[in-house]
Write a structure and sequence with these properties.
This protein has helices at about 15-35, 55-65, 75-80, 85-95, 115-145, 170-185, 190-195, 205-215; strands at about 1-10, 35-45, 70-75, 100, 155-160, 165. It is of the alpha/beta class. The N and C termini lie far apart (about 65 Å).
Length: about 220
């Protein structure tokens, strides 16, 4: 049996990297116990509600070409969290003679355990929608209270007590300069090239410095 293993984690944060490593080890052990072969690991690091996940799309394409015999996932929600995508994968596998097994024992087409497929697909879709609604309401409430909704402040700003403030350093002037040069007819690439050649810190570099400031590792940038 050639196994296609699908793994999805929501972010690339350190704790999710540990989760990814744990899931891979889980699948290696399961496949070894069965005496099967690993065809490929398909790994997506992003939200699971979208059907545009690159590795999942690649898995579906390979399934259409019957490149493996089994799809393994930790649970059905890792593959899909909406009914349409769930049934698209299920119907494709049935047509190609490919089995689906989830390690939570909810789905196993090898043993005929598919009668709960519809219920799980519906349940995960509802869970996903409820989570989305909660996040939207939280962001809306923060916006109404004048609080910053994002995780990282825009270039030239810092977050204090949940609100955006203009930084007391050179970055606000850099933002003004970018707007000015753009309105004067300069292209984005030429502006970026000049800033790079002048050694102007990038947003990523500024974020790293801001994180260090918060951690007390270095003095604030505006300190003398």
């Amino acid at each position: 049996m050639r196994c296609a293993v699908y793994v999805r984690v929501s972010t690339d944060k350190e704790e999710q990297k540990d989760s990814l490593k744990y899931q891979q080890e889980l699948f290696y052990n399961y496949i070894a116990e069965k005496g099967w072969d690993i065809y490929k690991f398909y790994i997506d690091v992003e939200s699971g509600t979208t059907a545009k996940r690159e590795e999942l799309q690649k898995l579906i394409e390979d399934a259409q070409d019957k490149k493996f015999d089994i799809i393994l996932a930790k649970e059905l929600s890792r593959l899909a969290r909406n009914g349409e995508l769930s049934y698209k994968i299920k119907n494709l596998c049935e047509n190609q003679g490919i089995h689906i097994i989830t390690l939570d024992n909810a789905i196993n087409t090898l043993t005929g355990n598919t009668h709960m497929f519809g219920l799980y697909a519906w349940m995960y879709e509802q869970e996903s929608q409820n989570t989305s609604n909660r996040v939207k309401e939280t962001l809306k409430t923060r916006a109404k209270n004048g609080l910053f909704k994002g995780s990282n402040p825009p270039y030239g700003y810092e977050v204090r007590d949940g609100k955006l403030y203009i930084r007391n350093d050179e970055t606000p002037n850099i933002v003004r300069r970018i707007f000015k040069e753009y309105l004067e007819g300069n292209g984005r690439q030429s502006i970026a090239r000049r800033l790079y050649n002048e050694g102007v810190p990038t947003p990523a570099q500024m974020l790293e410095k801001q994180t260090q400031e918060i951690s007390g590792m270095i003095r604030p940038l505006d300190a003398s």
